[in-house]
């Protein structure tokens, strides 16, 4: 099998689905880049290179460079999805949801219910998340918790290249609006990825590492932080099970609850938010449905309740690290 | 000339259906049987009817919170609409949408939209589908003067021009965005003039004159259908009722309110014009009035008697699959 980065795996998925179905289109800012300039077309291939080369194969009618106009992009994707296309819209940074959220949460998410089940809105919004690139308060947030709270949306956040390809293919084939969160720091992360097309169902968590003392639930890049912490803890004789839910909506509650039943201890590592984020959501789930299994308090490892800071030492202190996870586990076992 | 006569009678029937529908809801709303917000379209019937006359079921429209007129003009079932407004299970949206969310995709009605400026981005999406799939489909966005000031509207007009989408933006200027006058809230000379600044052909027409709207819509829709890009039409009319049912309309003078129906009634204006012509008699139109009244009567009766959704319906159709 070939080693591919997440960037390459996503490009694979897009290319294969666009070959399979002419109704799959891509639209967004600089998904090719270069229109109206004095240089070349496909100058960017997506701001982080994920859509590179697609305009060459599929043309400007299906790989559509838009102005910087997020409401029009999201609304056009929703309107196109409801009338027969399967658009993949790119929201360059999830932070930009502030200028277009109406089209996502009031429009696309609600069509099916509000119109009595008579419509389908098969659209995907690809967006980037994550702190760590020194991009400060308006280009670094995770925010998937805000979309997860909206009925009608599905939320997907792969942590590795294999999942990235399979989940994106599933997202494109899905008949509901799907928000696909890509962590900027993971694009170069590589693993074995099959060349052929495959889909990974939503709502099925991946048990990344099996263990029996502690359950750690982590999302997106935090899965890697949890794994790093698990290795350190293993050297201390503490056996950690790491669960990557892969999708927060739908959420695989069963795998989480079964693991906590086995270990009796839960740590959630989540970069989204200190308040009302996924950590709080998972903690609430286990407190309600798995309380009798718990041998100690649920530990939530999140950034502090602050915007993402710019200065490197501040940003490093903001993002949950393996050391903070290890410290959290120690606190729990004390 | 039979076909000309039929076209005129069809247009009148559609306008009268909207008027009767709205007048009746205005009355029924006081019984307490209609839940929630209702925004009436009476006074603007000529606009929706004249525009939708040029559209096929496979063409799409996006509408506003004041959407009953667009829905009827686009061919939505009147009984299904009435049942929806009463919150009944047999409503067009199974009772889950209500007055502000009436939709019927099979008729090309993409939905009334309760967010001011909500539909233009969606409508350019429907136009994008037509462009990508290479059909001759057209999409029409109905907005009010209020939505003409929203950023979503500006973004949509710009993107429609950039991508040369088959779309028409109709701005129904009824003088007020909620309780604030258009002269105060629209910074430009006119909505049409501002639309033109986005790089699309735009005209202002008298929205109480069915024939003026019809001519402008024909040109704009033909332009879209033949791949010549987007257009905008500002149609000026007056709404007979308040922003919502129950609105005391203190922002309108007594003189304005009393003159509305004397000077701005598009149905009267239509009748005067066609009765002066050769094809249509007063009796023809009076007969339609009677027929429409009975259609609306039976729609109200059926909606009242219909069943509400059950608690089981609460959880269905959030997703296609989950």
Can you tell me about this structure?
- The complex is a heterodimer of chains A (334) and B (322).
- Chain A has 334 residues and is α/β, with parallel strands linked by helices.
- Chain A folds into two domains: 2-193, 3-Layer(aba) Sandwich (Rossmann fold), CATH 3.40.50.970; 206-333, Rossmann fold.
- Chain A is built from twelve helices and 14 strands.
- Chain B is globular.
- In chain B, strand 4 and strand 5 (180-181) form a beta hairpin.
- Chains A and B meet through helix 3, helix 4 and helix 5 of A and helix 5 and helix 6 of B.
CATH class of chain B: Alpha Beta
Percent helix of chain A: 25-40%
Q: How many helix segments of chain A? A: 12
Number of helices of chain B: 12
User: What's the CATH architecture name of chain B?
Assistant: 3-Layer(aba) Sandwich
What would the average pLDDT of chain B be, to the nearest integer?
Answer: 97
The two chains with the largest interface, and their residue counts, are: A-B, 47 and 48 residues
- CATH homologous superfamily identity of chain B: Thiamin diphosphate (ThDP)-binding fold, Pyr/PP domains
The count of DSSP E runs of length 2 or more, i.e. the number of strands of chain B, is 7
Using only C-alpha atoms, the radius of gyration of chain A works out to 20 Å
Provide the number of structural domains of chain B: 1
CATH homologous superfamily annotation of the largest domain in chain A: Thiamin diphosphate (ThDP)-binding fold, Pyr/PP domains
> In total, how many domains does the architecture of chain A comprise?
2
Low-confidence stretches of chain B: none
Query: How would you classify the quaternary structure?
Result: heterodimer
